[in-house]
Amino acid sequence: MIETERQPRRPRRPPATGIVDCDVHNELDSTRDLYPYLSERWRRHVDRFGLGGYSGVTYPRFWDNREEARPAPGRRPGSTLATIQSGLLDRYGIAFAILNPLTPVARVTNLDLSAALATAVNDWQVTEWLDQDARLRASIIVAFEDPVAAVAEIERRAADPRFVQVQFSGRPHEPMGRRRYWPIYEACAGRGLPVMSHAFGSGGNPITGTGWPSYYIEDHVGPPQSIQANLVSMAAEGVFARFPALSVVSVENGFGWLPALLWRLEAAWRVLGGELAHLERSPAEYVREHLYLSTQPTEEPPRPVDLTRLFEHCPELADRLLFASDYPHWDGDAPDRALPPSVPDETRRRVLGENARRLYRLP
Amino acid sequence: MDRVDCDLHNEVPGIESLLPHLPDHWVEHVQTTVFRGPADVTYPPELQAEPAAAAEPRDPLDRLREEVLDRDGVAVGILNCTYAIDGLHNPDQAAALARAVNDWQAAEWLARDPRLRASIVVPSQIPALAVAEIERVAANPGFVQVLLPARAHHPYGSRLFHPLWEAIAAHGLVAGIRFGGAPGAPPTPVGWPSYQYETYVGMALVFAAQLTSLVSEGVFDLHPDLRVTFLESGFTWLPAHLWRFDKEWKNLRRLVPWVRRPPSDYVRRHVRLTVQPLDAPADPRHLVEVVEQLGSDEILLYASDHPHPHAFDAEADLLRHLPPALADRVRAGNARAWYRL
Fold first, then answer.
1. Which CATH number fits domain B4-339: 3.40.50.720, 3.40.50.300, 3.30.470.20, 3.20.20.140?
2. Residue B54, pLDDT above cutoff 90
3. How many angstroms away from the CA of A58 is the closest CA of chain B?
4. Beta-carbon separation of A229 and B188 below 8 A
5. Which pLDDT score is estimated for B50?
6. A315 in B contact zone (CB under 8 Å)
7. E-assigned strands of A105-170?
8. How high is the pLDDT of residue A330?
């Protein structure tokens, strides 16, 4: 976790240079932040009808964002650039930070409103974030449940190289491999944009494969299950076979589950592979080749050697793992705390910056 | 060599087998309507390994003896009948068929081979009816377990199920959470997948959610002697899930103050997992490392999962690579202690 200013900080090793942070949240203080970027029609719509969407699908967070990121009393932490600069970028010498705003776009069921909000969020990102600090890059927010609108939004942003990927929630309405989403992948693959899925959210389904759990801790343990279901779907449906240039990035889902998932995909392929006659290779191979993952939250095995062993159980991991602080969320990680000291320096160097520079074509 | 097989499947061959055990109302219903029992897709033909067509119909128990019990020298075998009672929305029908399945198990299986034990099939979707069925048959010592499909309408830690856990604990039974389920809700957190392959792979994630629920809701705190077996769950996913769950517990335990110890501690005391299907990595050393990461020599139980087909062999691909004493525990000792055989 990132320590607060009140506590003396003892770095574990000299600060690295060229760090790329793949998960920074530029927070909306409220939907009203988007009003300058919404048409009169949609401003009136939101004023009169609210955002609508799914009900009963969220677990109230236990803690909000880091207090030090609060710009002013009454405003949400992380909702201004200045606090992100001082609390994260300057403090840790971050070379590039990728903004992944968590917005109402994904939970709005009115697809026209969702698309209008997505465009507004991206305009807000350009004006209030990307234009203000050269270290920032951003995810394209799209109404992914309306692939036609999503592709139009991708085309609208494609000329701006500061938009480096397309963002899904952790839990879309259908598994991410389903064909309804393929136009989005085609647009991404054609432009060299990875598609990224950020943990949490709800697409209207119970957040486990066995109904709604009771507690926030269950919600917070759950993201690995959602991303694995999405990855199994993308591989089994043939998304990566159809779009060989597509990369998928898993953010805030952990990564300790990856080796066991690959083994299970392979074992199941041997038993049920005949059902996937449209695939030439095992789904495990497609996941191995196309997946990138972010660190935070890093699993914490009781014996640190077990974390190091993940890189042996899945040799690709050292080239696919991306540092993420998750700033300004309460459970974020500083760059020197993202991996335990047992991880070799060479691996740490790749994770802190090199892998992301290659994936996102950063200078 | 002592061997206990914790996962054998005695499937109901057809609704006709249950007629002798059904009350008149449901016999008439079967005979005069198109109803032929619950429909389920958990095990497609590819996963059922049907016997080769024989000139004469074969006694399923004879097949089990020949292909598993006698061949592998099984001292005790635990039957898990996956009849999809949970897929019946009509509660009266579900309860009647569960009763019939259990009476059929007692008459056609338990009474005919002393090596066999069985699992009580219950209408798990209506916990009060499930409790009634447990009360009805628990006196038969052949029933050692209550079978619950992994995919349910709600996670099993939910308070809706607490009367069921009370009954299971009160009768000293094991809860066997098994692969599959037919709740009519998606098997993933992101809706319905297209392929059975996805449901098969994703079932491990459903088991993870059930584990999270049972610990978070304090089911093991309420019932300190409760035993839960995961059947056909895989086990290689468990260490990483517990690393995450233990970490979140440190952060968020105030939300669930009754959970006084790390979740991994509860799992080692209260949960066992069967070894098939085995998700073996290419390098057996990696599998041995994962077994070490489970943190307990007691947690794995041998199971053939007969007649379902697998990618890997439990003996050749797992047990052969373990220290001999541990392999013996997995083959029999752990199950004998767990099921008090």
1. 3.20.20.140
2. no
3. 13
4. yes
5. 67
6. no
7. 136-141, 163-168
8. 82
The mean pLDDT value for B168-173 works out to 98
Residue A206 belongs to a domain: yes
Task: Give the pair of three-digit tokens for residue A93.
Answer: 């010498």
Q: In this complex, is the C-beta atom of A103 within 8 Å of any C-beta atom belonging to chain B?
A: no
Whether B56 shows a pLDDT value over 60: the answer reads yes
> A203, B217: Cβ pair inside 8 Å?
no
- Whether B195 sits inside 8 A of A276 (CB atoms) is yes
Give the pLDDT confidence of A320-344 residue by residue, as tens digits: 999 999 999 888 888 888 898 889 9
Model confidence pLDDT, tens digit, residues A43-73: 999 999 999 999 888 888 777 777 777 888 7
Number of domains making up chain A: 1
Q: Residue A294 domain-assigned?
A: yes
ipTM over 0.90: yes
Computed over every residue of chain B, the mean pLDDT equals 96
How many C-beta atoms surround the C-beta of residue B297 within 10 A? 16
pLDDT of res. A331:
83
pTM metric for this prediction: 0.96
What is the model's pLDDT at position A58?
86
Looking at chain B, the whole-number percentage of residues with pLDDT higher than 90 is: 94
Which A-chain residues 327-356 have CB contacts (< 8 A) with chain B? 331
The domain that contains A221 carries what CATH number? 3.20.20.140
Window 195-234 of A, Cβ < 8 Å to B: 203, 205-218, 220-222, 224-226, 228-230, 232-233
Is residue A8 one of the residues assigned to a domain?
no
